[in-house]
Amino acid sequence: MGGLGSGRWHGYQTVKATTEDLLRADSRVWHRMGLLVPGETFPWHWKREDRVISTMGVEVLPGEDGRAGGVVWMFSRPNSDEERHPVGIHWRDTLGTKDRPPWPVFVCPRCDGKRKPALLYLGKQGPGCRECLGLVHVSQRLTRYDRAFRAVGRTRQRLGWDTPENRMLRLKPKHMHWKTFAKLVAELERQERKAMEPAVAVLARFKKRAGIG
Length: 213
Prior knowledge:
Blueprint: E1 24-26, H1 27-32, E2 41-48, E3 51-62, E4 68-76, E5 82-92, E6 103-107, E7 119-123, E8 126-128, H2 130-133, H3 144-159, H4 164-169, H5 178-195, H6 197-210
Antiparallel strand pairs: 1-7, 2-3, 3-4, 4-5, 5-6, 7-8
Helix pairs in contact: 3-5
């Protein structure tokens, strides 16, 4: 029913794949969209920059109390027959609240239900949780300076300074309190100094070797 496009499959890499390398599905998103209706089938599209890169069909299986008890991921890889992968759904109570209804999580088919995550990733042999597929978060691959540059980007985005023109003008965003604005600017300046530490160190070594002041 669905065709997988340019997703990269875990197992080909000599280095551990990250959670950004594989296609993934989120049970919470499907629930919020009203897709987990027993007996129904829906198409699911993965997009990159508003362009569909892969598609699969999802069949919703009935469970207890009229709720979804599982789903079947249906897709075909290039030059292969259609695959069908049943995945259980567990309805988890919301911690600390009595009035809110339970929310769905997947039952990982690879570890016999030991883990019940909201996110499952599509690996070479089918869906599985992050631990079973041996995935790492992108942040685990970053150096301290990579993380510093990511922090700079996040703060600039909060300030609306994510373009060169806006960074030059350094204007306060509309509706932002001056106290919050001042705090974010100070935090951004600290983050920028930290992110530039390697370049400053290289320049200092160059000056020392060149005998420059």
